[in-house]
Each structure stands twice: as C-alpha cells, then as structure tokens.
Design goal:
- With 224 residues, the chain is α/β, with parallel strands linked by helices.
- It has a single domain, classed as Rossmann fold.
- Helices cover 49% and strands 17% of the residues.
- It has 9 helices and 8 strands.
- The chain has a 5-stranded parallel sheet with strand order 2-6-1-7-8, with helices on both faces.
- The longest helix is centred in the C-terminal third of the chain and has 17 residues.
- It is globular, with a radius of gyration of 17 Å.
- The termini are close together.
C-alpha cells in the first residue's frame, strides 16, 4: 500500500508521516531529504562549490552521474549515503532546505529522484511518502492521497521550534518569509508544481496536535 502525503513547508508532514509509518509498519519515504541530499552534494559536499570552481550545472551533472549518491530501505527506514558516508544532520539545516528549493525546480533532478522513489517503493510492502508532488506525479496511483497544510503562523512556529532544537537562530519573521518564498517556488515551478491531487483528502492541521493528525490519517488508512 502507498500513502502519498503532499503539502507546503512546515505543515508537519515529516513528523506525522514518521509516526504514521511506524504505527502501520510501513517505510517512511522522506522525499524532501532526498532533494536536500542532491543540494548538499552539489553545493557543500565533495562535489561542492570548492571543486575546481566548476559551475553549478556541471557539478549537478557530475552528482547525478557519479553514482555516489544512493538511497536504500533499511530497517523500514530511508537510508541516504554519499559513498560510504551516511547523510543525516547535513540535510536538516536552513541552508540545505533553501538550496533544495532551488534544486527541486530542475527537471533532471526531479526525474532522477522520482526514479529512485519508485524503485524504493517497489522494495517495500507499504510506504508513507511525503513531499510536494508525491500524490500527483510520483505515485498517482497511491491508494490514499492526502494534502496536509496549516496556516502560515502555525507552520512558521513549527519550523522555529525545529531550528531552535538544532541551535539554529532564525526569528519567526525570517522563517515566515522563507516559507512564503518556498510556497511560491513550489507552486509556480514549471515542472511538477505543488498542487492538491483531485482525489486527495484535504487536512488542515492548524488546530490539531501531532497525535490527532496521526490518528486521523491512521483511520483513513484503515479504509483500504
């Protein structure tokens, strides 16, 4: 079974999808982390800005062709590696998030990662996948599709709390501006823009706790 959950930045997708996947015994497929991995490799990783002063488009081509960046399912979780190096906290910084927004607009990146996402789904008996075009492009035949969102202030506060836990110091106004810019970039990009699938369930999480959201999603999944 495939559960595809889309929605804007800060809607709480990652948190609830991790818990939901664990509850159902499914694999959690964090597509956002996959885009941040490409961005890390291009901008700050081994093929980053310092490599012979190569332009970004050349570095991107090298990353996509190098086969050093790989993804796997291990213990019902997504593993992301550059060679033998496991990528974790490198993918959770504001810089990685902002870079992923730029990288994700490129058709060649989206094609590269969609192929990986579908391959990973074939390896699992059930997955919970989240992103921006997961239900519309990556898994259009998913059994359950949900568009998860929240109002801007709620989303900014959630991101603020995440960054604060990691020692990142951004004010709420900065985070709101970053979220609005990401919303615009995701919804207006020419290739695979963020939009709600016609057969998706709309769920506003603004006034809901994480547990309440997971409970609602779990009830939806039980219908299949």
């Amino acid at each position: 079974m495939i559960i595809a959950i889309d929605g804007p930045a800060g809607a709480g997708k990652s948190t609830v999808c991790k818990i939901l996947a664990n509850r159902l015994g499914f694999v959690y497929l964090d597509t956002g982390a996959m885009y941040r991995a490409v961005a890390w490799a291009v901008e700050t990783g081994p093929m980053g800005c310092g490599k012979n002063g190569a332009p970004a488009d050349l570095r991107l081509r090298e990353v996509l062709l190098a086969r050093e960046l790989r993804f796997c399912v291990e213990n019902d979780r997504l593993g992301i590696f550059w060679g033998e190096k496991r990528l974790t906290e490198e993918l959770r910084t504001p810089e990685a998030t902002e870079a992923a927004s730029r990288i994700s607009r490129l058709p060649e990146v989206r094609q590269f990662l969609v192929e990986w996402q579908r391959r990973l789904a074939r390896e699992a008996s059930g997955i919970v996948a989240e992103g921006r075009d997961t239900a519309t492009v990556v898994f259009p035949d998913a059994e359950l599709k949900v568009f998860l969102t929240a109002d801007l202030k709620t989303r900014a506060k959630r991101r603020f709390d995440q960054y604060f836990e990691k020692g990142e110091k951004l004010c709420l106004e900065e985070i709101e501006a970053l979220i609005l810019a990401r919303d615009a970039a995701d919804s207006k990009r020419a290739h695979s823009p963020m939009r709600m699938a016609e057969d998706a369930v709309f769920l506003d999480t603004s006034g809901l706790s994480v547990q309440e959201v997971v409970d609602r999603l779990s009830q939806m999944a039980k219908r299949f």
